[in-house]
Amino acid sequence: MSEVARQPILAYQGEEFPAYQALLGKLFSPYTPALKIVAEYDNLESIIAGVEAGRGAAVLYQSLGRIACKRAVLRPLKPEPQPPPIVIAYRKERVSATVARFVEAAKTAKLK
Predict the structure, then answer these.
(1) Which residues are within 8 A (CB) of 72 and not within 5 positions of it... i.e. 6 or more apart?
(2) pLDDT in tens, 63-95
(3) How many angstroms separate the CA atoms of 104 and 100, rounded?
(4) What is the predicted pLDDT for the residue at 65?
(5) Residues facing 10 on adjacent strands
(6) Rounded to whole angstroms, how far apart are CA atoms 100 and 8?
(7) Domain boundaries, the chain
(8) Residues 24-35 pLDDT 10s
(9) Predicted TM-score of the model (pTM)
(10) Which residues of 35-64 are buried (b: 16+ CB within 10 A; e: fewer)?
(11) Deepest of 3, 30, 41, 97, by most Cβ within 10 A of its Cβ?
């Protein structure tokens, strides 16, 4: 984490993705007073292209890394940060039986 905190960072646009930027700040606050975000992008493909072009490093969810080309190296963060909370959004007034079962299963699920 401390090594990444010293790198130029490519990130999602703060105006469009404020939760992502807040997450970066929280993750790296123990390692640096302010990340050096050198470029902001509005989509994942642009971030990956920036990484591949050598403009900086990006912090992404592991599942998103699957679309990166072979020119990008994916490394897990050490120490591994706590995962962000996961939520379900649905309309209360129109809940189908399938959605109700899914919500109930999600409430009882144990995450690893």
Answers:
(1) 48, 51, 52, 65
(2) 776 676 666 778 888 888 877 777 888 888 888
(3) 6
(4) 63
(5) 39, 58
(6) 44
(7) 2-67
(8) 999 999 999 888
(9) 0.71
(10) bebeebbeebeebbbbbeeeebbbbbeeee
(11) 41
